Amino acid sequence: MLHLFEKFGVELEYMIVRRDDHRVSPIADKLITDICGAPLNECRMGDCGVSNELAAHVIELKTAEPAGDFREMEAEFVRAVGRINEILGRRDALLLPGPMHPTLDPARESFTWPHEGREIYSLYDTIFNCRGHGWFNLQSCHLNLPFTGDEEFARLHAAVILLLPLMPALTAGSPFRDGRVTGLADTRLEIYRHNQDRCPSITGLVIPEPVFSESEYRESILAPMYREIAPLDPRGILRDEWLNSRGAIARFDRSALEIRLLDVQECPAADLALARFFVAALRLLTEHPEHSLRKWVLQSPTAERHRQLQHVIREGMKAPLLLPELRAAFGLPASVTCAGAFWRHLFRSGDLPELPDDARAVVARILRHGNLSTRLLAAYRRSRHPREFRPLTEALAACLAENRLFQAPRD
Known about the structure:
Blueprint: E1 9-18, H1 28-36, E2 42-45, E3 48-52, E4 58-63, H2 70-89, E5 93-96, H3 106-109, H4 118-128, H5 133-136, E6 140-146, H6 149-163, H7 168-171, E7 176-177, E8 180-181, H8 187-193, H9 214-229, E9 248-251, E10 256-263, H10 268-286, H11 290-299, H12 302-315, H13 324-330, H14 339-348, H15 357-369, H16 372-381, H17 390-402
Antiparallel strand pairs: 1-4, 1-5, 1-6, 2-3, 3-4, 6-10, 7-8, 9-10
Helix pairs in contact: 2-10, 6-10, 6-11, 10-15, 11-13, 14-15
């Protein structure tokens, strides 16, 4: 059993697109067959796992086993991206990063995974009608954090609940949809919030409810969800912990808390640096006594944290800071009034000494130049052809292939 912050798991989702026009290419099964000889649900490429998703043009890379070295984790992702791009090149395709394809028409261009596991995807489609952006055009980064027993779960869950509404301020990277600017910093999350409205208990208010034990979690979160889906799923195919679609979910089957709210970035260097930053902040919180964490978590209702998240979805780092418990937990000065100022204060405070120099340099650039959404919008507005997204997708594909941050052109 792994204890708090002993090791981690990271999952990164990428689109497969055609090399000539960057439209999505539903050949994930062909890619996996090229790697391991059959269209399996998952296979390995060194220490990196490769698996399918519901959309046939999406591939997921993940740590094959929990790992403690983020530098080596990043190196494995970079090696896997390079190898996959080499394989896809034979099919005139490549990997495209980013949480949403800016011009995808999911009703026309999307297909579901047709092999093992398709029964689950077919049922999702029957219940929720998966022919939309919420199922075919949302790529994320998942961060898995281990715990052992209720005491560690309680502290970790409380810390995650406190920080979760502000995390997308740094990771937001989806300002476009259907070839247009949406006016949102994180369009992916706005769609995610409503993806399963037919069964509201599955997503809840995105930010998890404050529960502090496995039995309470099963009774308060999982059981209502299973009851609500049961008439639509009489065979119980979806009756599993992964049905839970909150922004962070407890996976008691593997003693881990999975953060699912993060937009995937333009390269592993960005995803892993932000993951390390969040881990350092969560570690700092869990060092407080459990009674303090419970007091702070209970200070604001879940609905207020949801309202904070909505502001972050719209305004990114400019979102006002609404949660007074964060001031108490981090000793924030009165000058910290928005999400960006919160993260800058924490970054500069000296309270995160374990954040290494390489991750610190990446986070510093994001804090200075803006999240991916801000940088993409800046590049889009400076383009000679603002309705043409090809320069942006070309730049993003190059960032992934070269493992470097996206930088908007200067005036």
